[in-house]
Amino acid sequence: MDIVKNKVQSWLEIRDNTPKAITINRNEDLQIYFAKNKIWYIGEASELQEFYKQIDGKETTFWGSVPTSGLEIKKIHSGLPKKIIDKLTDIVIDNYNGVESEDTTKLEEWKKIAKENNFDKLLHKLLRETICLGDGAIRYSYDKNISDLPILEWFPGDMIDVIYKRGRLNEIVFKSYYEKDNKKYLLKEHRGWGYISYELFDRDNLVSLSTIESLSNLKNVIFDKSVMWAELFKIDDNSKYLGRGASKLDGKYDAFDSLDEILSQWVEAVRLGKATKYIPDKLLPKDKDTGEIMPPNPFDNQYILTDSDISENGRSEIKVTQPDIPSDKYYQSYVTYLDLCLQGLISPSTLGIDTKKIQDPNSAYERQMEKTTLYTRQSIIEALNDFIPKVINGVLKSYEQMQNKKPSEDIEINVNFGEYDSPSFDSQIDTITKAKNGGIMSIETSVKELYGDSKDNDWIEEEILRLKEEQGITEMEEPSISQDLDLFNEIDTKEEETPKETK
User: What is the spatial distance between Cα 367 and Cα 363, in angstroms, rounded to a whole number?
Assistant: First the structure.
């Protein structure tokens, strides 16, 4: 059969195609990923240019390209990444209303610890850096020289390593740098389930902790394996670096680069589009004292010298020329790439961008785009709803261990976030009002839909009663048949007991 098969294949000229291996060289590691996000957030044009000149593929990017000598232009950065990250952070933290728990004793302990560590400010910092870099971790430490309460320290993603075992978080490594005798040392603090260990490195060489005097007292610690004195925080999963978080800027770098290129070319066109005066030598401005021709100034009297027209019908006159600037084309390109930068991330109106210039003011574009901000905000809040209770329980357990107590069970924590005041709230009012006036929504449903979780149940019930009273809607108890029958039976009984003469 093999012989027959080979003969048939040779006769039909059938060839087996061996699968080819495709190799992709990834020249960017995790640290470069963090550095890129940091540089975009800082937004310094000079730093962006220096960074992109040192990475692969720089020739195809605006910030990495080197213009021909004599044709240099001023490279301008829009500052959009920083605005996006700061605004997303603000609309979440500004609506953070603390936590609640039925265990009032432990809740009071946490409030003391939170006040000592200025937790609200720390939360703002860690959220901003997580949105920018992708992840980070918070650790719980103790230093009697500073405070008797736990000390909360935040480390951004570029200062930690995360180790997983069988898909589960096993260890967080916190990295700190120290200098001595013009040498830089790296301290790695390993925090896992039930232990803390320390390692000090001089480049790749492991050295004693006593090398740095301030670290000589550090000792490895072992405690209850059910507790880790640290907590990892991330919002989205990174598709390139498994187990790590993804920056909200991820996938937007080319759009930001192109937007800056359009802005820079636009500004260069405006600069080159200045009006130019062609003045005959007889009409040139002259110095009143010396009579010499005054040199041109680029800001007030820029001109080009021409010969006087000596033809028969010629006359000497000043001519002013100015090239046309295709502002409409630049603006359309700017709007297109601005939309790519914000797509799936945040609404233009949230950033204060006039959307009427971008789209038809009569369209539903603004309302639909505002939903994007709400979706992004909701993903951040969901991550915080999972992270904050873990931090609180972890801190309380570590505090109990420091007091030589056995760690107690986790307490239930409710994280409160208020309603986001946005243009969509107005549209929500319009929608609910139309539904209620159309007779397809009750007062109870409309109030609950409008305020959601921003108000407690007692307030909502009171608001429903107030609205009903204002609208003249009152609720009266209907008499029941059973009550009427009982009343009649009671009357008959009394009549039987009363003497006939009295009747």
Answer: 9
